[in-house]
């Protein structure tokens, strides 16, 4: 027997019963970003490998171990994008839309790919909504990104389940001085570090700070602190950010070990974390990357952004039972018609109702069937009401109107009055 076909491990189907919640989440975010003046950009999911080596850093875990990289027929090395910022920077540089100091406030949505060990909340194909702002260098725009996410958590009903962690990495010069001091300290305690941290000490020492190993965490207690190496500019920027968050009333925790996993960050870094999802606690993260555009061949251009994981946030909505009632109901009204004449009249009636009520979710029965079978399908659809068209209704030019989810007797509604009646009942229902 041949092996059955199945999805690649860590790359999951999103089934019809799951997509309504995804669409609700994505729509809520899109409306929020529209309201704050952000514009959507769409980039390819495949880029030249060199893009990510130059932006993320060749000695990061992502580039060294996690990217899906292959050669195409031209012999070019291509990579499925592991994150969105580098691709967005490439796009704005290629099309010149940040030249001359033009401010761009952009967002994108789509799949990312990393060859990690799959577990709940972490997949090899995962989906993100990302946001990038170019040519604004003050703490006010950093604060706006955080304030937007705070508002989003409120709209989704999960604000009490997330916590904001903040840190500043300073300028590249300040971070370089801190890196030297950290390497000197950790090298003196080399034998006490776990194997992974010993490797990172040679390649990306700041990543040692976010280790989960208890023994290494104990070593880090007395390690140098980034805050002691900040330059005056970065310190003033960070104080300005905190002042704005305080003014709005957004609580936060300072986390000196927060460094993020990518080389391009500078000054502000932040994460929204939760304890509701087990090991996968970060649901949204980002920061400032003022040197990245220049690093990728452009003129010096300040930048800041974040990305949020859709899988994890959808899982949070499910875990906390913050799913609006209308999400679980995909049909408002189900039309049952019996006999060919009634089916033809039902199609015409349904289209007239849709003309008048374009937001009504009206499903017309397909495949004919007995009275019992059609009503069974109407009930299974989750509709609030069933419409009935049979010989008697056809003769009187009325439609039977039957509540399916509550009290109320079946009644007859004239065809020309149906849309007005549904508008009232569905809204009230």
Molecular structure report:
The protein is an alpha+beta fold and 429 residues long. It is 40% helix and 20% strand. It is built from 16 helices and 16 strands. It has helices at residues 19-35, 49-55, 61-66, 85-95, 139-156, 172-188, 195-203, 214-220, 232-248, 292-295, 310-319, 325-328, 340-356, 371-380, 391-396, 418-428; strands spanning 39-40, 46-48, 68-71, 77-80, 104-113, 125-134, 163-168, 253-254, 266-273, 282-288, 303-309, 333-337, 362-364, 385-389, 398-403, 411-414. The strands form 3 sheets. It has an 8-stranded mixed β-sheet. Strand 12 (333-337), helix 13 and strand 13 (362-364) form a beta-alpha-beta unit. Helix 1 packs antiparallel against helix 5 and helix 5 runs parallel beside helix 9. The longest helix has 18 residues, at 139-156. It is elongated and about 90 Å long. The two termini are 52 Å apart. The mean pLDDT is 91.
> What is the total tally of β strands?
16
- Largest beta sheet: strand ordering: 1-5-6-11-10-9-7-8
Strand content: 15-25%
Question: What is the distance, rounded to the nearest whole angstrom, between the alpha carbons of the first and last residues?
Answer: 52 Å
Uncertain ranges:
none
């Amino acid at each position: 027997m041949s092996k059955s076909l199945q999805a690649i491990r860590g790359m999951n189907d999103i089934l019809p019963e799951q997509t309504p919640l995804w669409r609700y989440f994505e729509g809520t975010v899109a409306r929020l970003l529209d309201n704050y003046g952000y514009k959507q950009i769409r980039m390819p999911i495949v880029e030249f490998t060199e893009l990510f080596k130059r932006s993320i850093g060749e000695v990061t875990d992502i580039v060294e171990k996690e990217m899906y990289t292959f050669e195409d027929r031209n012999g070019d090395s291509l990579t499925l994008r592991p994150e969105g910022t580098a691709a967005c920077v490439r796009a704005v540089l290629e099309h010149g839309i940040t030249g001359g100091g033009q401010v761009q406030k952009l967002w994108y949505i789509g799949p990312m790919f990393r060859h990690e060990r799959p577990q709940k909340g972490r997949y090899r194909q995962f989906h993100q909504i990302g946001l990038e702002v170019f040519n604004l260098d003050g703490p006010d725009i950093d604060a706006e990104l955080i304030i937007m996410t705070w508002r989003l958590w409120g709209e989704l009903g999960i604000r009490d389940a997330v916590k904001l962690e903040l840190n500043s990495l300073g300028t590249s010069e300040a971070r370089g001085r801190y890196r030297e001091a950290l390497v000197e300290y950790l090298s003196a305690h080399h034998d006490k570090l776990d194997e992974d941290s010993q490797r990172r000490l040679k390649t990306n020492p700041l990543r040692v700070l976010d280790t989960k190993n208890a023994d290494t965490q104990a070593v880090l207690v007395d390690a140098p602190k980034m805050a002691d190496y900040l330059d005056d500019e970065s310190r003033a920027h960070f104080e300005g950010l905190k002042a704005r968050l305080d003014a709005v009333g957004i609580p936060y925790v300072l986390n000196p070990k927060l460094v993020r996993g990518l080389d391009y960050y500078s000054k502000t870094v932040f994460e929204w974390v939760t304890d509701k999802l087990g090991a996968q606690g970060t649901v949204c993260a980002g920061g400032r990357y003022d040197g990245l555009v220049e690093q990728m061949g452009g003129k010096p251009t300040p930048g800041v952004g974040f990305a949020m994981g859709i899988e994890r946030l959808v899982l949070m909505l499910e875990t906390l039972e913050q799913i609006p009632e209308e999400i679980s109901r995909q049909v408002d009204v189900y039309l049952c018609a019996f006999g060919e004449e009634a089916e033809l009249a039902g199609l015409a009636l349904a289209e007239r109702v849709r003309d008048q009520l374009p937001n009504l979710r009206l499903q017309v029965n397909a495949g004919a069937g007995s009275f019992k079978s059609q009503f069974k399908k109407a009930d299974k659809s989750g509709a609030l009401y069933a419409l009935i068209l049979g010989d008697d209704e056809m003769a009187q030019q009325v439609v039977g109107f039957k509540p399916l989810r509550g009290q109320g007797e079946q009644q007859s509604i004239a065809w020309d009055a149906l849309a007005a009646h549904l508008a009232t009942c569905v809204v009230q229902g």
